[in-house]
Amino acid sequence: MKTSVCKFAFVTVCIGTVVACSKKTDNVEPTPSPVDTPVTKVQVIDTLAPNVPLKHVGGLHTEEDFVRIRAKIAAGAEPWTSSYNKLIANPHAQAGYSASPVAKLVRGGGSAEEPDPDNYSRAFNDAAAAYQLALRWKISGEVQYAQSAVNILNAWAKTCKRISGDSNTALAAGIYGYQFAVAAELLRDYPGWQAADFAAYKQWMFDVFYSLNMAFLKSHWGTCDSHYWANWDLANLASVMSIGILTDSRSIYNYAVNYLQKGNGNGNWYKAINYVFDGENAGLAQIQESGRDQGHATLVIALLGTISQLAWNQGDDFYGLDDNRFLKACEYVAKYNVARLEVPFHQYTRKWAANCAQTEIHTAISDNGRGTVRPMWAAPYYHYTKIKGKSAKDVTYTFLGFNSTQPEGGGGDYGSNSGGYDQLGFGALLYAR
Predict the structure, then answer these.
(1) How far apart are CA 264 and CA 249, in angstroms?
(2) H/E stretch holding 287
(3) Which domains does the chain have, with CATH numbers?
(4) Could you report the per-residue pLDDT of 216-271, keeping only the tens digit for each?
Protein backbone atom coordinates (compact mmCIF):
# COMPACT_ATOMS: atom_id res chain seq x y z
CA MET A 1 0.00 0.00 0.00
CA LYS A 2 1.25 3.48 -0.84
CA THR A 3 1.52 6.08 1.86
CA SER A 4 1.86 9.83 1.58
CA VAL A 5 3.98 11.85 3.92
CA CYS A 6 2.64 15.12 5.33
CA LYS A 7 5.43 17.37 6.55
CA PHE A 8 4.86 19.36 9.69
CA ALA A 9 7.40 21.56 11.39
CA PHE A 10 7.90 23.77 14.38
CA VAL A 11 9.86 26.81 13.19
CA THR A 12 12.58 25.06 11.20
CA VAL A 13 12.42 21.57 12.68
CA CYS A 14 10.72 19.16 10.28
CA ILE A 15 8.64 16.27 11.54
CA GLY A 16 7.39 13.55 9.25
CA THR A 17 3.85 12.28 9.79
CA VAL A 18 2.77 9.29 7.73
CA VAL A 19 -0.86 9.09 6.66
CA ALA A 20 -2.17 5.80 5.34
CA CYS A 21 -3.84 5.90 1.93
CA SER A 22 -6.17 3.37 0.41
CA LYS A 23 -5.55 1.89 -3.02
CA LYS A 24 -7.31 3.72 -5.81
CA THR A 25 -10.22 1.91 -7.40
CA ASP A 26 -12.16 2.60 -10.55
CA ASN A 27 -15.59 2.17 -9.02
CA VAL A 28 -17.30 4.09 -6.27
CA GLU A 29 -17.69 1.90 -3.20
CA PRO A 30 -20.71 2.73 -1.06
CA THR A 31 -19.40 0.35 1.58
CA PRO A 32 -15.60 0.62 1.45
CA SER A 33 -13.44 -1.90 3.24
CA PRO A 34 -10.94 -0.85 5.90
CA VAL A 35 -7.26 -0.86 5.08
CA ASP A 36 -4.74 -2.90 7.01
CA THR A 37 -2.21 -0.14 7.65
CA PRO A 38 -3.10 1.87 10.77
CA VAL A 39 -3.49 5.62 10.39
CA THR A 40 -1.13 7.71 12.47
CA LYS A 41 -3.07 9.92 14.86
CA VAL A 42 -2.52 13.61 14.30
CA GLN A 43 -2.41 15.47 17.60
CA VAL A 44 -0.77 18.77 16.61
CA ILE A 45 -0.24 20.51 13.28
CA ASP A 46 2.81 22.72 13.57
CA THR A 47 3.58 25.48 11.13
CA LEU A 48 6.51 25.70 8.76
CA ALA A 49 8.93 28.62 8.72
CA PRO A 50 7.67 31.77 6.95
CA ASN A 51 10.20 31.34 4.12
CA VAL A 52 8.92 27.87 3.17
CA PRO A 53 6.95 28.29 -0.08
CA LEU A 54 3.29 27.37 -0.22
CA LYS A 55 2.13 24.78 -2.73
CA HIS A 56 0.30 26.14 -5.75
CA VAL A 57 -1.58 23.01 -6.66
CA GLY A 58 -5.03 24.49 -7.26
CA GLY A 59 -6.20 25.31 -3.75
CA LEU A 60 -8.97 22.80 -3.17
CA HIS A 61 -8.28 20.69 -6.27
CA THR A 62 -4.98 19.46 -7.68
CA GLU A 63 -3.97 18.63 -11.22
CA GLU A 64 -3.95 14.98 -10.15
CA ASP A 65 -7.63 15.40 -9.30
CA PHE A 66 -8.38 16.81 -12.74
CA VAL A 67 -6.49 14.04 -14.53
CA ARG A 68 -8.68 11.53 -12.71
CA ILE A 69 -11.85 13.53 -13.40
CA ARG A 70 -11.17 13.85 -17.13
CA ALA A 71 -10.55 10.13 -17.45
CA LYS A 72 -13.71 9.23 -15.54
CA ILE A 73 -15.89 11.57 -17.60
CA ALA A 74 -14.38 10.25 -20.83
CA ALA A 75 -15.30 6.75 -19.68
CA GLY A 76 -18.83 7.81 -18.71
CA ALA A 77 -18.18 6.66 -15.13
CA GLU A 78 -20.35 7.61 -12.17
CA PRO A 79 -20.68 9.69 -10.09
CA TRP A 80 -18.36 11.92 -12.13
CA THR A 81 -20.51 12.07 -15.25
CA SER A 82 -23.78 12.99 -13.57
CA SER A 83 -22.11 15.63 -11.43
CA TYR A 84 -20.30 17.08 -14.45
CA ASN A 85 -23.60 17.29 -16.31
CA LYS A 86 -24.96 19.15 -13.30
CA LEU A 87 -22.08 21.59 -13.54
CA ILE A 88 -22.36 22.33 -17.25
CA ALA A 89 -26.14 22.84 -16.93
CA ASN A 90 -25.73 25.49 -14.22
CA PRO A 91 -26.42 29.04 -15.52
CA HIS A 92 -23.36 30.28 -13.62
CA ALA A 93 -21.06 27.98 -15.59
CA GLN A 94 -21.76 29.39 -19.04
CA ALA A 95 -19.16 31.20 -21.15
CA GLY A 96 -20.01 34.86 -21.47
CA TYR A 97 -21.48 35.08 -17.96
CA SER A 98 -21.69 38.78 -17.13
CA ALA A 99 -20.35 39.94 -13.77
CA SER A 100 -22.19 42.48 -11.60
CA PRO A 101 -19.50 44.01 -9.37
CA VAL A 102 -20.27 46.85 -6.98
CA ALA A 103 -18.02 49.55 -5.58
CA LYS A 104 -19.42 49.02 -2.10
CA LEU A 105 -20.30 45.42 -1.19
CA VAL A 106 -23.05 45.58 1.44
CA ARG A 107 -24.05 42.85 3.87
CA GLY A 108 -25.93 44.12 6.88
CA GLY A 109 -27.38 47.13 5.10
CA GLY A 110 -30.42 49.12 6.12
CA SER A 111 -28.73 49.52 9.47
CA ALA A 112 -27.27 52.26 11.62
CA GLU A 113 -23.85 51.40 10.26
CA GLU A 114 -24.93 51.27 6.61
CA PRO A 115 -28.21 52.83 5.42
CA ASP A 116 -27.90 51.46 1.87
CA PRO A 117 -29.57 48.09 1.18
CA ASP A 118 -27.83 44.75 0.88
CA ASN A 119 -26.30 43.87 -2.47
CA TYR A 120 -24.15 40.89 -1.47
CA SER A 121 -26.11 38.53 -3.73
CA ARG A 122 -23.99 39.95 -6.54
CA ALA A 123 -20.87 38.67 -4.83
CA PHE A 124 -22.10 35.17 -4.09
CA ASN A 125 -23.46 34.75 -7.61
CA ASP A 126 -20.29 36.00 -9.27
CA ALA A 127 -17.95 34.05 -7.00
CA ALA A 128 -19.92 30.88 -7.78
CA ALA A 129 -19.71 31.67 -11.49
CA ALA A 130 -15.95 32.27 -11.42
CA TYR A 131 -15.41 28.97 -9.61
CA GLN A 132 -17.69 26.95 -11.87
CA LEU A 133 -16.20 28.42 -15.02
CA ALA A 134 -12.71 27.71 -13.73
CA LEU A 135 -13.74 24.09 -13.18
CA ARG A 136 -15.07 23.82 -16.73
CA TRP A 137 -11.77 25.13 -18.07
CA LYS A 138 -9.72 22.75 -15.93
CA ILE A 139 -11.79 19.78 -17.06
CA SER A 140 -12.45 20.61 -20.73
CA GLY A 141 -9.39 22.71 -21.53
CA GLU A 142 -11.59 25.20 -23.39
CA VAL A 143 -10.17 28.68 -22.81
CA GLN A 144 -13.50 30.43 -23.23
CA TYR A 145 -14.41 29.30 -19.73
CA ALA A 146 -11.16 30.45 -18.19
CA GLN A 147 -11.43 33.81 -19.88
CA SER A 148 -15.01 34.28 -18.71
CA ALA A 149 -13.91 33.47 -15.15
CA VAL A 150 -10.96 35.87 -15.33
CA ASN A 151 -13.25 38.59 -16.67
CA ILE A 152 -15.42 38.19 -13.57
CA LEU A 153 -12.48 38.40 -11.19
CA ASN A 154 -10.88 41.36 -12.96
CA ALA A 155 -14.19 43.23 -12.94
CA TRP A 156 -14.52 42.82 -9.17
CA ALA A 157 -10.94 43.79 -8.48
CA LYS A 158 -11.29 46.96 -10.58
CA THR A 159 -14.67 47.97 -9.17
CA CYS A 160 -15.10 46.88 -5.55
CA LYS A 161 -13.38 49.15 -3.04
CA ARG A 162 -14.78 48.02 0.29
CA ILE A 163 -17.25 45.94 2.27
CA SER A 164 -19.85 47.79 4.33
CA GLY A 165 -22.71 46.98 6.68
CA ASP A 166 -23.25 46.05 10.30
CA SER A 167 -21.47 43.16 12.03
CA ASN A 168 -22.40 40.96 9.05
CA THR A 169 -19.55 42.47 7.07
CA ALA A 170 -17.49 39.71 8.67
CA LEU A 171 -19.62 37.06 6.97
CA ALA A 172 -19.21 38.75 3.60
CA ALA A 173 -15.46 39.04 4.06
CA GLY A 174 -15.22 35.40 5.12
CA ILE A 175 -17.52 33.52 2.78
CA TYR A 176 -16.94 35.51 -0.41
CA GLY A 177 -13.29 36.00 0.51
CA TYR A 178 -12.54 32.30 0.47
CA GLN A 179 -14.63 31.71 -2.64
CA PHE A 180 -13.04 34.48 -4.69
CA ALA A 181 -9.59 33.31 -3.56
CA VAL A 182 -10.23 29.65 -4.40
CA ALA A 183 -11.50 30.57 -7.87
CA ALA A 184 -8.40 32.69 -8.49
CA GLU A 185 -6.04 29.95 -7.33
CA LEU A 186 -7.58 27.59 -9.88
CA LEU A 187 -6.89 30.16 -12.59
CA ARG A 188 -3.37 31.22 -11.62
CA ASP A 189 -1.83 29.07 -14.39
CA TYR A 190 -4.19 30.31 -17.10
CA PRO A 191 -1.84 32.10 -19.52
CA GLY A 192 -4.55 34.52 -20.59
CA TRP A 193 -4.64 36.15 -17.15
CA GLN A 194 -2.27 39.05 -17.55
CA ALA A 195 0.41 39.26 -14.88
CA ALA A 196 -0.50 42.84 -13.97
CA ASP A 197 -4.18 41.92 -13.60
CA PHE A 198 -3.36 38.90 -11.46
CA ALA A 199 -1.13 41.04 -9.24
CA ALA A 200 -3.89 43.63 -8.91
CA TYR A 201 -6.38 40.91 -8.04
CA LYS A 202 -4.18 39.55 -5.25
CA GLN A 203 -3.77 43.05 -3.86
CA TRP A 204 -7.56 43.48 -3.97
CA MET A 205 -8.07 40.27 -2.02
CA PHE A 206 -5.59 41.51 0.57
CA ASP A 207 -7.00 45.03 0.86
CA VAL A 208 -10.73 44.32 0.80
CA PHE A 209 -11.09 40.83 2.29
CA TYR A 210 -8.03 39.87 4.31
CA SER A 211 -7.91 43.18 6.17
CA LEU A 212 -11.52 42.70 7.29
CA ASN A 213 -10.97 39.02 8.11
CA MET A 214 -8.20 39.96 10.49
CA ALA A 215 -10.06 42.90 11.98
CA PHE A 216 -12.89 40.55 12.92
CA LEU A 217 -10.75 37.68 14.19
CA LYS A 218 -8.68 39.98 16.38
CA SER A 219 -11.51 42.11 17.78
CA HIS A 220 -14.77 40.19 17.38
CA TRP A 221 -16.20 43.67 16.97
CA GLY A 222 -15.53 44.62 20.59
CA THR A 223 -17.25 41.63 22.14
CA CYS A 224 -15.74 38.75 24.06
CA ASP A 225 -14.07 36.00 22.03
CA SER A 226 -16.92 33.53 22.56
CA HIS A 227 -19.64 35.96 21.46
CA TYR A 228 -19.79 34.98 17.78
CA TRP A 229 -20.82 31.52 16.73
CA ALA A 230 -18.29 29.12 15.22
CA ASN A 231 -19.29 29.74 11.59
CA TRP A 232 -18.24 33.41 11.83
CA ASP A 233 -14.68 32.54 12.80
CA LEU A 234 -14.50 29.59 10.42
CA ALA A 235 -15.62 31.61 7.40
CA ASN A 236 -12.93 34.18 8.09
CA LEU A 237 -10.29 31.53 8.74
CA ALA A 238 -11.15 29.84 5.43
CA SER A 239 -10.65 33.22 3.77
CA VAL A 240 -7.36 33.91 5.55
CA MET A 241 -6.05 30.45 4.66
CA SER A 242 -7.04 30.68 1.00
CA ILE A 243 -5.75 34.25 0.63
CA GLY A 244 -2.48 33.19 2.22
CA ILE A 245 -2.16 30.47 -0.41
CA LEU A 246 -3.16 32.80 -3.25
CA THR A 247 -0.74 35.55 -2.23
CA ASP A 248 2.18 33.23 -1.40
CA SER A 249 2.21 34.28 2.25
CA ARG A 250 3.18 31.47 4.60
CA SER A 251 2.76 33.86 7.53
CA ILE A 252 -0.88 34.49 6.64
CA TYR A 253 -1.49 30.77 6.17
CA ASN A 254 0.27 30.02 9.47
CA TYR A 255 -1.99 32.42 11.32
CA ALA A 256 -5.01 30.36 10.28
CA VAL A 257 -3.34 27.05 11.17
CA ASN A 258 -2.42 28.34 14.63
CA TYR A 259 -5.79 29.95 15.31
CA LEU A 260 -7.63 26.77 14.36
CA GLN A 261 -5.79 24.96 17.15
CA LYS A 262 -5.11 27.65 19.73
CA GLY A 263 -7.42 30.58 18.97
CA ASN A 264 -9.67 32.03 21.64
CA GLY A 265 -12.73 32.27 19.39
CA ASN A 266 -15.21 29.55 18.51
CA GLY A 267 -13.37 28.83 15.27
CA ASN A 268 -10.88 26.87 17.33
CA TRP A 269 -11.21 23.23 16.16
CA TYR A 270 -11.89 22.09 19.73
CA LYS A 271 -14.53 24.73 20.30
CA ALA A 272 -16.24 24.47 16.92
CA ILE A 273 -16.47 20.70 17.56
CA ASN A 274 -17.07 21.17 21.23
CA TYR A 275 -17.69 17.69 22.61
CA VAL A 276 -16.59 14.18 21.60
CA PHE A 277 -18.76 11.36 22.92
CA ASP A 278 -17.56 7.98 24.12
CA GLY A 279 -19.15 4.74 25.23
CA GLU A 280 -22.22 3.77 23.25
CA ASN A 281 -22.03 7.10 21.37
CA ALA A 282 -18.39 6.78 20.41
CA GLY A 283 -17.83 8.03 16.88
CA LEU A 284 -19.99 11.13 17.33
CA ALA A 285 -18.95 14.71 18.16
CA GLN A 286 -21.17 17.70 18.87
CA ILE A 287 -20.98 21.02 17.02
CA GLN A 288 -20.85 24.27 18.97
CA GLU A 289 -23.92 25.44 17.04
CA SER A 290 -25.91 22.21 17.50
CA GLY A 291 -28.09 23.78 20.19
CA ARG A 292 -28.66 26.87 18.04
CA ASP A 293 -30.09 25.49 14.78
CA GLN A 294 -29.21 23.00 12.08
CA GLY A 295 -28.83 25.51 9.26
CA HIS A 296 -25.76 26.87 11.02
CA ALA A 297 -24.57 23.50 12.32
CA THR A 298 -24.43 22.23 8.75
CA LEU A 299 -22.65 25.41 7.67
CA VAL A 300 -19.95 24.65 10.22
CA ILE A 301 -19.46 21.22 8.63
CA ALA A 302 -19.21 22.81 5.18
CA LEU A 303 -16.60 25.32 6.35
CA LEU A 304 -14.58 22.73 8.27
CA GLY A 305 -14.52 20.65 5.10
CA THR A 306 -13.23 23.56 3.02
CA ILE A 307 -10.51 24.30 5.56
CA SER A 308 -9.53 20.65 5.84
CA GLN A 309 -9.18 20.29 2.07
CA LEU A 310 -7.20 23.52 1.64
CA ALA A 311 -4.84 22.44 4.41
CA TRP A 312 -4.55 18.86 3.14
CA ASN A 313 -3.25 20.10 -0.21
CA GLN A 314 -0.59 22.04 1.71
CA GLY A 315 0.43 18.92 3.66
CA ASP A 316 -1.48 19.71 6.87
CA ASP A 317 -3.94 17.11 8.09
CA PHE A 318 -6.92 18.77 9.78
CA TYR A 319 -9.01 15.84 8.62
CA GLY A 320 -7.04 13.61 10.96
CA LEU A 321 -6.54 16.10 13.79
CA ASP A 322 -7.43 14.73 17.23
CA ASP A 323 -8.24 11.20 16.08
CA ASN A 324 -10.43 12.33 13.16
CA ARG A 325 -12.50 14.71 15.26
CA PHE A 326 -14.03 16.21 12.10
CA LEU A 327 -15.33 12.83 10.94
CA LYS A 328 -17.11 12.38 14.27
CA ALA A 329 -18.72 15.79 13.81
CA CYS A 330 -19.84 14.80 10.31
CA GLU A 331 -21.39 11.62 11.68
CA TYR A 332 -23.24 13.54 14.40
CA VAL A 333 -24.68 16.19 12.10
CA ALA A 334 -25.61 13.69 9.38
CA LYS A 335 -27.19 11.27 11.82
CA TYR A 336 -29.52 14.00 13.08
CA ASN A 337 -30.19 15.83 9.80
CA VAL A 338 -30.01 13.12 7.13
CA ALA A 339 -30.85 9.86 8.90
CA ARG A 340 -33.29 11.76 11.14
CA LEU A 341 -32.19 9.79 14.17
CA GLU A 342 -31.77 11.13 17.66
CA VAL A 343 -28.32 12.00 18.93
CA PRO A 344 -26.92 12.68 22.40
CA PHE A 345 -26.37 16.23 23.59
CA HIS A 346 -23.83 17.54 26.04
CA GLN A 347 -24.97 20.66 27.90
CA TYR A 348 -23.28 23.74 26.53
CA THR A 349 -23.03 27.22 28.02
CA ARG A 350 -22.34 30.07 25.66
CA LYS A 351 -20.91 33.29 27.06
CA TRP A 352 -21.54 36.34 24.95
CA ALA A 353 -21.83 40.17 24.81
CA ALA A 354 -19.06 42.53 25.85
CA ASN A 355 -16.81 40.92 28.47
CA CYS A 356 -18.95 37.75 28.33
CA ALA A 357 -21.51 39.48 30.52
CA GLN A 358 -24.38 37.24 29.40
CA THR A 359 -24.78 33.50 29.16
CA GLU A 360 -27.18 31.06 27.58
CA ILE A 361 -27.40 27.38 28.37
CA HIS A 362 -28.22 24.78 25.72
CA THR A 363 -29.54 21.54 27.15
CA ALA A 364 -30.82 19.87 23.97
CA ILE A 365 -30.07 19.80 20.28
CA SER A 366 -32.17 22.26 18.27
CA ASP A 367 -34.58 20.91 15.66
CA ASN A 368 -34.82 24.32 14.00
CA GLY A 369 -33.73 23.86 10.39
CA ARG A 370 -33.42 20.10 10.79
CA GLY A 371 -32.82 18.48 7.42
CA THR A 372 -30.94 21.45 5.92
CA VAL A 373 -29.37 20.29 2.65
CA ARG A 374 -25.92 21.49 1.66
CA PRO A 375 -23.56 20.03 -0.98
CA MET A 376 -20.79 19.31 1.50
CA TRP A 377 -20.55 15.60 2.25
CA ALA A 378 -18.43 14.30 -0.64
CA ALA A 379 -15.07 15.68 0.49
CA PRO A 380 -15.12 14.12 3.97
CA TYR A 381 -16.72 10.90 2.75
CA TYR A 382 -14.10 10.23 0.09
CA HIS A 383 -11.22 11.47 2.19
CA TYR A 384 -11.98 9.24 5.13
CA THR A 385 -12.81 6.16 3.09
CA LYS A 386 -10.42 6.34 0.16
CA ILE A 387 -7.46 8.18 1.68
CA LYS A 388 -7.73 7.40 5.39
CA GLY A 389 -9.19 3.94 4.76
CA LYS A 390 -11.96 4.20 7.34
CA SER A 391 -14.54 1.43 7.35
CA ALA A 392 -18.17 1.70 6.29
CA LYS A 393 -19.19 1.65 9.96
CA ASP A 394 -17.09 4.76 10.64
CA VAL A 395 -18.83 6.75 7.88
CA THR A 396 -22.36 5.38 8.19
CA TYR A 397 -24.15 8.72 8.31
CA THR A 398 -21.63 10.72 6.29
CA PHE A 399 -22.29 8.27 3.45
CA LEU A 400 -26.04 8.87 3.81
CA GLY A 401 -25.33 12.60 3.58
CA PHE A 402 -23.26 12.10 0.45
CA ASN A 403 -25.92 9.90 -1.10
CA SER A 404 -28.69 12.40 -0.31
CA THR A 405 -27.26 15.09 -2.60
CA GLN A 406 -26.45 13.05 -5.71
CA PRO A 407 -25.83 14.26 -8.32
CA GLU A 408 -24.30 17.05 -6.31
CA GLY A 409 -24.51 20.60 -7.64
CA GLY A 410 -23.25 23.94 -6.40
CA GLY A 411 -24.23 27.60 -6.20
CA GLY A 412 -27.49 28.12 -8.05
CA ASP A 413 -28.72 24.55 -7.53
CA TYR A 414 -29.90 25.02 -3.94
CA GLY A 415 -32.13 28.05 -4.06
CA SER A 416 -31.53 31.74 -4.61
CA ASN A 417 -30.72 32.68 -1.01
CA SER A 418 -27.22 33.00 0.35
CA GLY A 419 -27.32 29.62 2.12
CA GLY A 420 -27.34 27.87 -1.22
CA TYR A 421 -24.06 29.60 -2.10
CA ASP A 422 -22.16 29.30 1.18
CA GLN A 423 -20.33 26.24 -0.12
CA LEU A 424 -18.88 25.72 -3.60
CA GLY A 425 -20.27 22.20 -4.13
CA PHE A 426 -19.81 19.67 -6.96
CA GLY A 427 -18.05 17.38 -4.51
CA ALA A 428 -18.86 14.07 -6.19
CA LEU A 429 -17.24 15.33 -9.40
CA LEU A 430 -14.19 16.67 -7.60
CA TYR A 431 -13.48 14.25 -4.77
CA ALA A 432 -14.79 10.85 -5.86
CA ARG A 433 -12.16 8.13 -6.03
Answers:
(1) 23
(2) strand 285-287
(3) 3-431 (1.50.10.100)
(4) 999 999 999 999 999 999 999 999 999 999 999 999 999 999 999 999 999 999 99
